[in-house]
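Reviewer 2 asked us to include a model.

Predict the structure of this chain.
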Amino acid sequence: MNLVLLGAPGAGKGTQAKLIMKKYSIPQISTGDILREAVRGNTQLGLKAQEYMNKGLLVPDEVVIGIIEERLKGQDCKKGFILDGFPRTIPQAESLDEVMSRLNMKLDHVIDFELNEDVLIKRLSGRRICEGCGIMYNVYFNPPRKDMVCDACGKNLFQRKDDHIETIKERLKVYRAQTMPLIDFYKAKNMLVTLYLDGTEGPDLIFDRLCNRLES
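Predicted model (structure tokens):
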């Protein structure tokens, strides 16, 4: 089963991707994770990507498309895969079609997670990460017992630059302009599966709804 996950930043795509990966034994391919790893390693690609990510802008197509094609050639993608964070634009979606044609693959479903924008902003701006063990908290929904201190290891928490409120608003603006058109693009191909979320459901309940849609 070959899947693409759509949805604004903070909609929960990454969490659902991990649940899908576990249930169906297919890999999650997150361009966001790959690019952040490159940023941490101070690679040439990472430094270039960081300029855009810090501004809340999309990383240019030429930085990511080659990475995706090479990743899809991996043996662990033979039974399927989950693309999380790509494509983000119509040109990227068209390039993905070309890549999959070359690799003799096809998409099965495109899952769109729809969530209220006010909830999205709280989910992102409230995120805090432990500098020691990496556990993630949210000051609105899952705060630590002591402000800015990890419950598990006692190390300090920090906020990523791309979770600052100004950056979030820019990311959402870019999403509306460049990524939302993919909804109609994939709807026309009869691939779109839309999940409407209210922000109160836990990830397991959302996953049950998703599996019912995929398997019906």
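DSSP finds nine helices and eight strands in the chain. Residues 2-125+164-215 form a domain with the Rossmann fold fold (CATH 3.40.50.300). We have added this to the supplementary material.
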